[in-house]
Design a protein that fits this description.
This protein is mainly beta. Helices cover about 10% and strands about 40% of the residues. The protein has four domains: about 110 residues, no CATH class; about 150 residues, Jelly Rolls (Sandwich); about 120 residues, Jelly Rolls; about 80 residues, Sandwich (Immunoglobulin-like). Helix 2 crosses helix 5. The structure holds heme C.
């Protein structure tokens, strides 16, 4: 508690600082709104996951001190992995420049600036898809959430696929984004799922970690603010014939009488009969069975560390010299505190950093894509160091006083899993740039330089008036840019010079009517095409 005198002193200090900074301080319209719109408002809008909107000047002004504090402490935007250890795709991390701007803006009194010059606020609709097209939509039955405790509920969706399909893109669309905190997507072919569903009254059934069926395979994971899962070309995760899709949704404690009807959209992979097509597997390559100092049992009042190691070996199913890691998803429960995962390369013994979560937060777990797929030769080891804090001082400890926690699937048990999305290695995989429509810190990617022209997605997409295409060019290119519509009709064409390194081509799409378009970059030796949507 501050005394009145301290408060008076603080307000003087503030006035003084405000005056000092006023002259050159950033303004909301020019400097702050663009930062909030690209990093915060996907959750902080009315009806979004975060409790408060940060869309308007007044919103930002009212929360300015908290914004500064949360941003300075890296609490917001939420991004548990340590970017110093390994940069990951779609990283949600503010640059030092942006953090400084926020800080100066707050210290400078939170000025509005020229409101007319502020960028147009983004619009958030729950229906617009970010997939390139949708082949299957599954919607859960409406469910009225009414819970004092955290609720993990599985909803079953029939597919009636007559043959196996492969998902190339998976997107979860929360029905009620203010309560859908986290979604795991599984597929399962057994009747057990249906049984569980009918035994539990109301839509779906309650189940904490998995679906409760051994046949269930994880195919995707979603947390708010993340981009949909999109595998590189000619890859996909298998959905078995007649499978059922299960959405396991986490609704936070204290959710009363709120309706949800979450959907999953899937785009199937094409060319699945091509010899170049590869199945993607999502599996816990590291689990409790790989612990070298197991079993996973944590006595009360201690901090305990564990290490798991697993060697990638040749099996009939892996007739390739290496595997390609696409994504990683660490998993622990409530007293889990840290997880660091890396590979030790066969022969060279080089360390390949994969992910480090210095402060595990069960509420913000996710599936993280690598910016470039990672080649791991067979014979290499995957290693995970983890730490559990079973002391009373851990605010997430479910037991007071602390009790022995063992491995198990209920919330108060613990787990030690690292899921990976992976496939067989093909030469060149490490040069794929996992496409991003919200690239942050592209310079850090330089060290994984690609040898062919890499085009990112058109951004923003859907777009209006203006859009841009970011690229990485290993050399200079003289090229033609062409925009064609969905019927293949050429809309416009212009010459572009692409300089070596990272660059952008601006697209003036002012006069394009609403619809789907293709942007092609043509050189003498190749054509590369990206799809984008113009909205009104
Ligand atoms: C992925 C979703 C997400 C993103 C992106 C996000 N936030 Fe949050 N934010 C939340 C949630 C959820 C809470 C409330 C729970 C909590 O405090 O952990 C919150 C709370 C806050 C609060 C406390 C006031 C309030 O609204 O309850 C502030 C201030 C805040 N965020 C600022 C920011 C800023 C600034 C950014 C961008 C730089 C940002 N957040 C990005 C989800 C997000």
């Amino acid at each position: 508690m501050k005394t009145p005198l301290q408060l008076i002193f603080l307000s003087f200090l503030f006035c003084f600082l405000s005056l000092k900074y006023k002259a050159q301080s950033p303004t909301w319209a020019q400097d702050i709104a663009p930062i909030l719109y690209s990093n915060c408002t996907s959750c902080h809008h009315t009806g979004g996951l975060a409790p408060n909107s940060l869309m308007s000047y007044t919103d930002a002004y009212n929360f300015r001190f908290m914004i500064k504090q949360y941003v300075d402490s890296n609490y917001m935007p939420p991004w548990p992995p340590d970017p110093q250890y390994k940069h990951l795709a779609h990283e949600r991390v503010l640059s030092v420049t942006d953090k400084n701007k926020i800080s100066q803006w707050v210290l400078g009194g939170g000025q509005q600036g020229n409101a007319a010059g502020a960028p147009t606020p983004p619009t958030y609709t729950n229906t617009a898809t970010q997939l390139s097209s949708i082949d299957f939509t599954g919607k859960m039955q409406n469910y009225m959430v009414n819970t004092a405790n955290d609720l993990y509920r599985c909803f079953v969706i029939n597919t009636n696929f007559s043959v196996d399909k492969f998902a190339a893109e998976i997107e979860v669309k929360p029905g009620n984004s203010s309560i859908v905190h986290h979604v795991l997507v599984f597929e399962d072919t057994t009747a057990l799922i249906k049984q569980k569903d009918s035994l539990d009254p109301g839509a779906g059934y309650t189940s904490f970690f998995g679906t409760g069926s051994n046949d269930s395979r994880l195919i995707g994971e979603w947390v708010p603010g993340t981009a949909p899962i999109k595998f590189p070309n000619l890859m996909g995760v298998r959905l078995r014939k007649n499978t059922r899709i299960i959405l396991q949704i986490h609704y936070p404690q204290g959710t009363y009488l709120k309706l949800d009807s979450t959907r999953v959209n899937i785009k199937f992979a094409t060319n699945t009969t091509s010899p170049l097509f590869r199945e993607v597997f999502l599996a816990p390559l590291l689990s409790e069975t790989n612990l070298i100092n197991g079993p996973l049992s944590i006595p009360p009042n201690v901090v305990k560390t564990f290490t798991s190691v697993s060697t990638l070996t040749t099996t009939a199913a892996l007739p390739f010299p290496a595997i390609t890691l696409l994504s990683v998803a660490p998993h622990m429960h409530l007293i889990g505190n840290k997880m660091k995962v890396f590979a030790l390369e066969n022969v060279t013994n080089d360390t390949l950093p994969l992910i480090n979560i210095p402060r595990w937060d069960f509420k913000w777990q996710g599936i993280y894509n690598f910016r470039n797929p990672i080649k791991v030769p067979l014979g290499s080891k995957l290693v995970c160091h983890s730490e559990y804090d079973n002391r009373a001082s851990n605010p997430n400890n479910p037991n007071n006083p602390p009790q022995t926690v063992n491995q198990g699937e209920s919330t108060t048990d613990e787990m030690n899993l690292v899921f990976f999305a992976f496939t067989y290695y093909f030469p060149g995989d490490e040069n794929i740039i996992v496409d991003s429509s919200d690239i942050v810190g592209v310079n850090e990617m330089q060290k994984n330089i690609a040898s062919t022209l890499q085009l990112f997605n058109v951004f923003p997409n859907p777009a209006k008036n203006q859009a841009q295409l970011n690229y990485f060019a290993p050399t200079n290119y003289l090229a033609k840019a062409k925009i064609t519509n969905i019927e293949g009709k050429l809309i416009k064409e212009w010459p572009v010079t692409m300089q070596e390194g990272y660059g952008a081509i601006n697209l003036n799409i002012d006069n394009l009517t609403k619809g789907q378009y293709f942007l092609s970059i043509e050189t003498k030796s190749f054509t590369k095409t990206k799809q984008f949507i113009v909205y009104e």
